[in-house]
Write a structure and sequence with these properties.
single chain, 186 residues, Rna Polymerase Sigma Factor, Chain: A, 77% helix, 0% strand, elongated
Length: 186
């Protein structure tokens, strides 16, 4: 059997072995690489999206996610299980994203899409500009809750804030977006 086929078989076996989050977590704590691959397949795309919303471009987002999963691999033994593993990974990705921003000395921003003519493109540009003007913490809660579909408990765990603060910041973000977008329409 070739090495590539063997590795693929091991990954499939790892997926079948972990019928619950607890079993997957136990395997990860034993530094089972196949379990981490399963964890990455389950959470990687969401983590890339979260990182993208922090750093503003795909390359930096992928760097942040890679750094986050390396950190998770090294520190999984310290995960107490107070939150879901997805929430824990999200917190690590957010921190890694901020590290990437600091390292590259950039401001958190959403990349404006290429200009297209028509009313949809002007509204998209207005939304992007309004998002850039939001308080970064409010923007992150908005993105995690509205775009990524996390629950307030998960947002709170990911951002290390109380659940009530997550709700309040989401309310503020929506109120500010509504105000800014209504100014654009006038």
């Amino acid at each position: 059997m070739e090495a590539g086929s063997l590795a693929l078989t091991q990954v499939k076996d790892a997926t079948l072995q972990h019928d619950s989050e607890a079993a997957l977590l136990d395997a990860c704590r034993r530094q089972d690489v196949g379990a981490f691959e399963t964890l990455y397949r389950q959470h990687g795309s969401k983590m890339k999206s979260v990182a993208y919303h922090v750093v503003g471009n795909r390359q930096d987002a992928e760097d942040a996610v890679q750094d986050a999963f390396v950190k998770a691999f090294k520190s999984i033994g310290g995960f107490r299980g107070d939150s879901s593993i997805g929430g824990w990974l999200c917190r690590i990705v957010i921190n890694a994203s901020y590290d990437v921003l600091r390292k590259r000395q950039r401001e958190t921003a959403l990349i404006a899409e290429p200009e297209r003519s028509g009313p949809c493109s002007s509204m998209r540009m207005a939304i992007n500009q309004a998002m850039k003007r939001l308080n970064p913490k409010h923007r992150m809660v908005f993105m995690l809750y509205e775009v990524e579909g996390l629950k307030h408990t998960e947002v709170a765990a990911a951002m290390d804030i109380p659940e009530g603060t997550s709700k309040a910041w989401l309310f503020e973000a929506k109120r500010e977006l509504k105000r800014m977008l209504s100014e654009v329409q006038k």
